[in-house]
Amino acid sequence: MSGGVDSAVAAARAVDAGHEVVGVHLALSRMPGTLRTGSRGCCTIEDSMDAQRAANKLDIPYYVWDFSERFKADVVDDFIAEYSAGRTPNPCMRCNERIKFAALLEKAIALGFDAVCTGHYATITVDEAGNRELHRASAWAKDQSYVLGVLTAEQLAHAYFPLGDTPSKDLVRAEAERRGLSVAQKPDSHDICFIPDGDTRGWLAERVGTATGEVLDRSGAVVGSHEGAHAFTVGQRRGLRLGTPADDGKPRFVLEVRPKENTVIVGPKEALAIGEIAGVRYTWAGLAPVDATTPFACDVQIRAHADPVPAVARLDGDEFVVVPDIPLDGVAPGQTAVVYLGTRVLGQFTIDRTVSAVPVPA
Q1: Are 180 and 188 within 8 A, CB to CB?
Q2: Catalytic site residues (predicted)?
Q3: Which entry of 42, 43, 117, 193 is annotated as an active-site residue?
Q4: Which of 71, 144, 147, 294 has a Cα at 20 to 30 A from 347?
């Protein structure tokens, strides 16, 4: 129970369904903030108190479990390491993968619980053979299946998402009001939970340091300088402070980050078009295809709120390779690609390499 309206209503529905429910709030920071600022941040003391009030209203036991050390190692330190390597990580994916459905689930199973129930908007179905499948929520505008794409078949067997069939968040808030839950109108959390002020560049600078480097165009010409490559991500336009304008006068965007050389490569917007993505760190959300080495049609989604794009996927040796029907825009290594078959989440991989759809001019 995060202290938000979704997990509170999910817990209430689990109680209504006849389950023996225990509310658990995860303490993910050794020094949590006391109060939230609107929709920024989470895991504050206020959030813990909101979760407890909801548990009291539902008359269920409530505990706070300290996962701060593992969260720091598996999510925060990973975030720093990925940016330092020139990649753009998704900490919400890592949290679901390594904390909520790994560390939390492991402890829950050890204590005799059957499943972890959360307020995510996604659904789980069971096929004729009894195999579980992860599917999109009924309301695509609120669908959160993308951030759950890291779940494995074993984890899906112990997951429960009571909100998946709810058509809108407004209905969840109205239900919370009817149930007398004080979090009914509480704002949703946004941004990275451990960077509540939203200043990712400043946060990284404090932990990685700064070092002056060059900004290059695709021909290798120096067009500016920066104070640390880790502060940039593919597709970025703002904050480049380039001293040399483009020949065509158009804005330039970050195309690549090279941390070893401490350089940033920029170019025109059209150069952000990506014709192929691939990665070796992949998992299947349920049953894997019988022969994934044979190219198959699918949809690929590269951000939580991006539209799915028709594509062809295959396993090529150790790599999961996806070729979209139309180029993807501004893909960065480190992002997660989630592959769908219709509404079903087939699997995911961390993007290691991209192939531009626009060749570098000679």
Answers
A1: no
A2: 95 (nucleophile), 193 (cysteine persulfide intermediate)
A3: 193
A4: 71
